[in-house]
Amino acid sequence: MDMNVRTGAGQAAAPATPSDSGDDRDKGGSGSGDVPMRAFADHPVAVRPCSLAASLEILGERWTLLAIREMAYGVHRFAKIAGFTGASRDLLADRLRKLEAAGVVERRQYSEHPPRYEYHLTQAGRELFPVTLALLEWGNKWAVDQPAVDFRHECGHTVQTYPACRHCGAEVTRANVTPIRPRRSTPQPGGE
Length: 192
What we know:
Layout: E1 2-8, H1 51-59, H2 62-72, H3 78-85, H4 89-101, E2 105-111, E3 116-121, H5 123-126, H6 129-142, E4 158-164
Antiparallel strand pairs: 1-4, 2-3
Helix pairs in contact: 2-3
């Protein structure tokens, strides 16, 4: 799945899709190992391993995403990141260390005496742009009365996120996605 950026005139809501309308009908897949989305609800209750959970372990905290926002805006010095986010220095230092350890941010020294560093997004960090844009769009719609910033595409229209399949270009919705269990590379005890 790719979170492409689509432009549209104004902030009009997109037409309702089955996933938007509350329609919980799920489609089954056609290939071996395909599981209808609803089937996940019928699994025995246990902590579900998931890439979303792993991502949130790294990114799922307010100050972390706000620091990433600032670096995406071109703010790279610690004091300015702290000032624009409102994070305490100790908290921000901790979040930046975790982002650096996860490979999302890299430090670049700009002063030797005293040693000072700038913080820059790595490729992994830059790939968060569509995620942060989608969160900002969601916040503009559901979390604030008046958006603080509007992003316009070079064509002049308001930027809107649009999840689309890279293969066929069709919109990605809950109703047209089928989870596929990855094939295991090594045999598991008691497995096939």
